[in-house]
Amino acid sequence: MRHALLLLLLVFAVDPSVGRTEPLHVFAGVVPIRTFVEKIGGEQVDAHVMVRPGYNPHTYDPTPRQIAALSEAVLYIRAGVPFEHAWVNRIRSANPAMQVLDVRSGIDLHRMEVHEHDGEGGGDARSRAGHDGHQDHHGHLADHTGDDAHHHEFDPHVWTDPRLVKHMAGAIRDKLTALDPEHDKAYARRYRAFAAELDALDRDIRSLLDGLSDRKFMVFHPAWGYFARAYGLIQVPIEKDGKEPGPRALTALIEQARREQVKVIFVQPQFSRSSAEQVARAIGGRVAAIDPLAADYADNLRRVARQIAGAAER
Ligand code: ZN
What we know:
By secondary structure, the chain is α/β, with parallel strands linked by helices. It folds into 2 domains: 12-107 and 116-201, Rossmann fold (3-Layer(aba) Sandwich); 213-312, Rossmann fold, CATH 3.40.50. It has helices at 2-14, 16-19, 31-41, 64-69, 82-94, 124-138, 162-179, 184-209, 225-231, 247-259, 274-283, 297-312; strands at residues 24-28, 45-49, 75-78, 99-102, 216-219, 234-237, 264-267, 286-289. It has a 4-stranded parallel β-sheet with strand order 2-1-3-4, with helices on one face. Helix 11 links the parallel strand 7 and strand 8. It is globular and about 60 Å long. The model is unreliable at 10-19 and 115-151 (pLDDT under 50). The site of zinc ion (ZN) has 5 residues, from loops.
């Protein structure tokens, strides 16, 4: 009995993984990224999210409690969503020892759909000139994706393409392994399982969407640029430069929707659906919700593919 106890004490003394009961505190910018962290980290991580469910990542303000909680974190996983550009310095200064992993690195970033200005409101000529100047300037910035001054040109919704998520999952595995080498095998094993899940998801989405003859879908907020690029679809956004469209732009969209026999206008729960409802009413169509920020990543993306496929049916 005494020997057994001694042996037990020795085991605790020599194996640090037995002694380390605290999981790694990791913060993710948005819910899907938290899901990826949980997939790879399992019980070795305690994963938190900045943009809480139901909130909009374009305008989010972290709470004081969240900023305080960052002091416990060893890692912040940045998705590149707009609130992070405004908050990155405060996030870093809340915990200078915390590492920051940007999941966009190594990804060919997609530019946001650039909208024609619809000619409404004052000062349009000036804003148009300003916009064009900006575009020219941007010609050389394609490889400066980490440059916070220029973030708004790039579509931040990188996680809507499962193949890009596989790339991100590899980066998350590598980072967790570097922070916690004791559990390298567990991270590697969970990565392989998640990668297989993502491959299956990609195949399922392809088979749901491959046969569609109508490749366009209309959506209020253009969160599906990477999804559309991956599966050969065309996303038609209602939102113009991050704002509700004015009456003239709305009329043009309604005409386009009629011409292209659009039946469904997609919205997401974190945004207003009033413009989408106006278009839907005018064309005798309906509004349907698809959520790029859902926690059940793979099942949600299958639902999204099914909904887009259903909307294209005549
Ligand atoms: Zn968005």
